[in-house]
Model the fold of this input.
Amino acid sequence: MLRFFASRLIQGGIVILAVLCITFVLLKRAPGSPLESERNIPEHIRAQKMAQLGLDQPEIVQLWR
Done:
């Protein structure tokens, strides 16, 4: 019985990890960015906000952040 619960726990963890990765990839591939709704932002402010949100980091860093 313990083996069954351990197996189900591991399977659940794998499913959660897969859903997390798929959701992240789909959201990253969506058109636009969180800052595109603000049309008149100067470029230096946009870069500052991107850094503040961590959007200038590699995708793997963004995923685990």
